[in-house]
MerR family transcriptional regulator
Amino acid sequence: MSYSIGEFARLCGINAATLRAWQRRYGLLKPQRTDGGHRLYSDDDIRQALSILDWVRKGVPISQVKPLLSRPVIRLGDNWITIQETMLQHLPRRAN
């Protein structure tokens, strides 16, 4: 689905001027353009914008967010179960 900058701004809770600045100054978000030059944002852009917001809310300056977006996401919840199972396998078995 495609969204105008106004629709996109409302969906993400980000001011349209902020979105333009993120694109122009920091190379964040790369919306498609209509023949008339208007920005068209996608569902993937929504996910990226929300990820950017998450980093900013964690205190990361917007100028430092771009490299973080290309890093793989570590889901500790999934890995934690695997780690626990591995640790349990290495514990000595106690006889009752």
Summary: The chain has one domain: 5-90. The longest helix spans residues 43-57.
